[in-house]
TrEMBL record:
Presence of the UniProt keyword Nucleus in the record: yes
Start and end residues of each stretch annotated as Disordered: 56-76
GO molecular function, one term: transcription corepressor activity
Lineage summary: Eukaryota, Metazoa, Chordata, Craniata, Vertebrata
Record text on subunit structure and interactions: Homohexamer. Associates with heptad repeats of HSF1 trimers and probably also HSF1 monomers, and with HSP70. Association with HSF1 trimers and HSP70 coincides with attenuation of heat shock response and the conversion of HSF1 trimer to monomer.
Protein name stated in the entry: Heat shock factor-binding protein 1
One Pfam family linked to the record: HSBP1
Keywords in alphabetical order: Nucleus, Stress response
Highest taxon of source: Eukaryota
Localization: Nucleus
Record organism: Xenopus tropicalis
Family: Belongs to the HSBP1 family.
Cellular compartments per GO CC: cytosol; nucleus
GO terms (BP aspect): cellular heat acclimation
Length: 76
């Protein structure tokens, strides 16, 4: 068979198309996994920010109360 034989060209075309489809499927799977992990990370970051804000609020109240107790009254 010659390399320009239509049967050979068709077979090669089918093989290349199958390979490209497999690659596209793998990339789509990886993309979906990455997006899922980014969504999970986003949720965790949101939770962490909320916890930090809560802790800062608690610490701010505690620091404010402590500061009021430790500071002498303002002069009159």
């Amino acid at each position: 068979m010659s390399e320009t034989d239509p049967k050979t060209v068709q077979d090669l075309t089918v093989v290349v198309q199958n390979l490209l489809q497999q690659m596209q499927d793998k990339f789509q799977t990886m993309s979906d996994q990455i997006i899922g992990r980014i969504d999970d990370m986003s949720t965790r970051i949101d939770d962490l920010e909320k916890n930090i804000a809560d802790l800062m609020t608690q610490a701010g109240v505690d620091e404010e109360e402590s500061a009021n107790k430790q500071q002498p009254p303002p002069p009159k």
